[in-house]
Model the fold of this input.
Amino acid sequence: MARYTGPVCKLCRREGEKLFLKGQRCLSPKCPFERDRGYPPGEHGRLARFRRRRPSDYLRQLREKQKARRIYGVLERQFRRFFREAERRPGLTGENLLIVLESRLDNVVYRLGFADSRPQARQLVQHGHFVVNGRRTNIPSYIVRPKDTITVREASRRRTYFKDRANQLDEGAVLDWLSLDADAMTARVLRLPAREDVDTSLNEQLIVEYYSR
Done:
C-alpha cells in the first residue's frame, strides 16, 4: 500500500503551517517547525521567504490541494479518486470531499483518540488492531458509514499500548458524529460528518477550482 515515507516536518514547513503529523511532538518546543521558524525546506529556504511574490491563483489552488493530501496522508491518485466520488454525490463537491476524507477509518481512529496523529492511526489500522462491524479491517482508506461499530480487537487490548491508551480516552472530547465507550474500547458512527465537524484550516473551494481547470 503506497504511502509517503519521507520527513513529515518538511511537509509542514512547505505548507507554512503545522499539519500536526507527529502528534504531541508538534505541540512541544522540539517541533522543527518552531525551531526553523516556518522557513520553507531546502538550501535556499530562508532566502525564499524574502523573495516571495504574490502567489498566482493556480499556486493557491495547488497548495491547498497539497495541504489536504498531506493532512490526511493520501497520495495523488487516491486523492483524485476521492474527488471524483465527491463529485458524484449530491451537494457541494468541496464539502463532500472533506466528508469522504473525514470518513476514512484511519481518520476516525484518530478522531476517537486511539492515536496521537493520523499517520499513527494508519499504522494501527494496517496492523489489524481494529474490528469494523465484527470483521477485522486493516484498510486505512475504508469509508465508515452511519451505524458502523469500531472496536479494538480483544487480543490487541492486552497490549501495553492500548492499556495505556485506555486511561487517556476522553468520551467528552469525541466529535458529535461519533460516540465512544472508553471502557469497552468501542465506538459507533452516529451520522456522516458535516463541514462544521472538520477543524482543519482548509479552503475546499480552492481544491474544487484546481480540479476544474
User: Anything to note?
Assistant: Residues 5 and 160 are 26 Å apart (CA to CA).
